[in-house]
Amino acid sequence: MSRNKYPQETIGKILDTAQQLFLSKGYEYTSIQDIIDGLGGLTKGAIYHHFKSKEAILAAVVMRLFADAKERMKRIVSDPNLTGREKLVLAVQDCLEDPTQDYLFEVAPNILKNPWMLAALLQDCFSTVVPDILQPIVEQGIEDGSICTQHPKELAQVMSILCNVWINPTVCHGSKEEVVLRMRLLNQLMEPFGLDVMDDRVIERVLNYQRLHSEKNPHSNVS
Question: In Å, how far are 32, 56, 58, 102, 172 from 52, measured between CA atoms?
């Protein structure tokens, strides 16, 4: 059996094809066979050599899309000219205004019905978002007085879970009014700590993500 001399090129083709199909058909309605057909000549075995499942392909697509975003977050966290609170505001704005977020919310399935994806989301919160972004920002905010807490790690964890799960339209569905209420309440909960950053601009972006997701997932529990 001949060995693939260009594995990264093959992976790139798989991800390019899958990314286009997820957007045009929706993740739920795209099969591995659809991806094979789009690649022209690549076998199912070749795909499974690189990816164990369709979920793994989506995860790789998302990681590739957000590579630049992670670098921007690193620059925000390390910026010596910003307070902790200013960094948090900028990080939230940068995240929500990244055009790749539109793709994510448009193709993402109902995560509550995909335990693997829900577990991956939570793992990313605890292994990346909290230690690499939120906790360093909160700790600096404590030092410069812009954030008030004696428990930076735990507060960062709570905020990460609430933002990435509770007000995430792909996880917790609801009407426009319910989403706005959650975000207003989150602001009230975070205000004593100096983390009330859910302004009208942020709320509008999240509502746009809800619309994108509901259009691709009309059977989601959105009233």
Answer: 11, 6, 11, 26, 27
Is 1.10.150 the CATH number for 66-216? no
What gap in Å lies between CA 84 and CA 90, rounded to an integer? Answer: 10
Q: Which residues of 171-207 are buried (b: 16+ CB within 10 A; e: fewer)?
A: bebbeeeebbebbeebbeebeebbbbbbeeebbebbe
Reported pTM:
0.81
For the stretch 28-67, pLDDT in tens is 889 999 999 998 878 888 898 999 999 899 889 988 888 8
CATH fold, domain 7-61, is Arc Repressor Mutant, subunit A (1.10.10)
Distance CA 146, CA 142 (A): 6
